[in-house]
Specification:
heterodimer, A: 292 residues, mainly alpha, two-stranded antiparallel sheet, 74% helix, globular, B: Rossmann fold, 10 helices, 10 strands
Amino acid sequence: MTDGTIFFLIQLLNAVQYGLLLFLVASGLTLIFGIMGIINLAHGSFYMIGAYLAFVFADMTGNLWLALAIAVPLSFLFGLVLETLLFRFLYGRDHLYQVLLTYGLILIFEELRSLIVGNDVHGVPVPHFLDFSIPLTATLSYPAYRLALSAICLAVTALLYLLIQKTKLGMAIRAGAFNREMVQTLGIDIGLIYRLVFALGVALAAFAGMLAAPTTSVFPGMGNQVLIICFVTVVIGGIGSIKGAFLGAMLIGLVDTFGAVYAPQFSGLLVYALMAAVLIWRPAGLFGAAAR
Amino acid sequence: MSDTTLIEAAGLHTYYGASHVLHGIDLTLRRSETVALLGRNGMGKTTLLRSLLGLTPPRRGSLRIAGRDMASARPDRIARAGVAYVPEGRGIFPTLSVRENLLLAARPGAWNIERVLGTFPRLAQRLDHGGGQISGGEQQMLAIGRALVTNPSCILIDEATEGLAPLIARDIWATVAAIRAAGIATIVVDRNLAALSAVADRVVILAKGLTVFAGTPAELAAQPEIKHRHLGI
């Protein structure tokens, strides 16, 4: 293979890795939006919180895997508490209330972050046994951690698919998105389903932040960038559709990565052009309700 | 209250926002009995069912189900107390397969999925179809089957045969009779008085949110002026 082909393959790996990471964050956003009807502007904050949890616990334990083992359950728990104390009062309310509360949460989370860990940029070390690059040619190589990251994201995506398609909880989630009352009259506590879905969304976003921490560093406001691109993903895929979020995230990964290489002067614009094109073609997104 | 009473509602007042729909309804459903609920459109039949199910809880009045106070209970708690629902429009989940519609509802008991498929052989051939891909008659069978696999002590069926072809409607009436024979109580809403009279132990007629008749089908047949005034027959 020529250096050019290898370079292309490396970009492809980067695109897939970015897309998968984006999917983990966007899947929770689209579930919470599609099932509970909540516009959650604070969703990017969960990504940020995940990254900082990884930083704090990796610093404490000296081991990223141990940090993940502590931080993932912690963020799930955090999601349960947040839903119980705040979000469950937003169901069925006007989007204005949701936007106000969740925007307020962004400010609170950033302020708390500033108070607890400060405003410096931090790095999280790559786990020792993955801290090497796989040489591909004389000059090109690929970091092993990024490959591992993609593999982990793929595994989580597969688990999420199994959860939604094959379990009774998944059936209740899909049914509840369509007809909440009917699910209740089957004897299922829809409030519990909502709480679990919300916490799952929080944990997925936080997990993505944790995995990304060693590759991007950890910095103030890192959730906001993710939030915007996540909304683009959800809109492209169709609100509420996990399949759509996956496809949307992959498309964005490809367009963003290859855009930065082959059309760097437009790279910031391309994903939005993609969104516009998809919406002209399918106004409800790739797998939106109207296009189903 | 005797232990054969499943649902005992007294003085139910139910509102949709500011609109006062039920004006103090009493209703009793005893074990294994089939009650026909009749009345013109907009007289409160669906609202009564929704009140009993906790979907539109009554603002005043008492509601006891299986002996427990359920006037302000959540719908899932009422469902677990043994009340199943077949709503108008059937409420099939179109994004779930026929099999999943049943699996989601199933609770342990005599009515398992195999028994439901034995009752509705047509569903057995449609198990892997989407809930939205099957015919209206099959959807109604699925809605009843889904109610049965929750192993309820009673089923509330709204508009049992609305929009169904006569042959399919006949199947549904046969099923209602089979449910009765299986010892499950039902409240059935429908327009077909003849078919209802054949399966019902009692008939209740609502008008403007009040009970205007309660008695056996034979008693109703003996009072043509009630049929004429409240059912337009």
